[in-house]
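Hey, resending since the last one bounced:
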Amino acid sequence: MTDKQKEQCGRIIDKTAMAAGCCNLVPIPAVGAVADYGMFTAMTLSLAKVFGQSLTEATARGIALAAIKRLAARFAVGCVVREFGRLAPLVGPLVSGSLSFVMARTIGWWIAGELSRRTICAARACVTNK
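The structure tokens again:
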């Protein structure tokens, strides 16, 4: 991944993480999770463009879901705290939003890394097939 690609990815990931954090301030369980999935799909489409890849929405949803599943174990406790934390009047939404921000950044960088590796592998395949 080039420095320019890292910078572009960082902007996309940060915007998505901020949106995820804000959406998860809503004190209604599961609302943030549904919004997160849609945002991660849109983020995946944007990140793919950084690497010159064209993805269908279905493929982007699959990559986003794979990232969520892959990192779910790491965030299992955080997800439970986030959902039950919504029930606490003042602190709950703040904790929920903060955890969502961190999870979105982690998922975003994982997706960016995977897309970068796909680009490198595709480029190597083109070179070896010539």
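DSSP finds four helices and no strands in the chain.

Sorry for the duplicate.
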